[in-house]
């Protein structure tokens, strides 16, 4: 049943991406770019395409043990972000009633869930690989949390920085170190995983 639902979901994503691409091609060939509605349609297509790709990333781990609800949570957040994004295009005075900070926060979370879902595709029992994997995921969500905190509550974050780190410079350096470690973990993870698989196969 779960496999059938996943196939249906994947087919829906592919269908959305194909339709989005066809509409975009039609607009580029036949439409007038000075028409505001055409620009809105292009923006909608862009959001649909990006959201489909992010949702596809999250869906890849749906059948993995322990990751089903993580996958669903990621897809749900992506759906909320999509609603925010499309509404911001079509609803007049959208930002008079809704905060753009919340919209950006949802988009940041969407990317983080999609990104970490791809990392979780690495499936191994090797302790070293798993340590790198979960350390990288934790770093990504620390950076995500700090970004959203800065976006929604900048004054509280500044007070926290001054209390804990005393200077903003120290905090910025820490963010830089975490960012480098996050990128390093992302690059090293599949390489280390391949190395240990190759070593085990030789035995």
Question: Would you mind describing this structure in some detail?
Answer:
With 203 residues, the chain is mainly alpha-helical. It is 85% helix and 0% strand. The chain has eight helices and no strands. Helix 2 (36-59) runs antiparallel to helix 3 (68-90), helix 6 packs across helix 7 and helix 6 (127-152) runs antiparallel to helix 8 (168-202). The two termini are 38 Å apart.
Given the helix and strand composition, which structural class is it?
Answer: mainly alpha
Low-confidence stretches: none
> SSE order in H/E notation?
HHHHHHHH
Task: Bin the helical content.
Answer: over 70%
Give the distance, in angstroms, between the N- and C-terminal Cα atoms: 38 Å
Q: Nearest-angstrom radius of gyration?
A: 20 Å
Summarize the biggest pleated sheet: none
Number of strands: 0
Give the overall silhouette.
globular
Keywords:
single chain, 203 residues, mainly alpha, 85% helix, globular
In short:
The chain is mainly alpha-helical and 203 residues long.
List the helices and strands and how they pair.
Layout lengths: L1 H29 L5 H24 L8 H23 L3 H4 L2 H20 L7 H26 L1 H11 L3 H35 L1
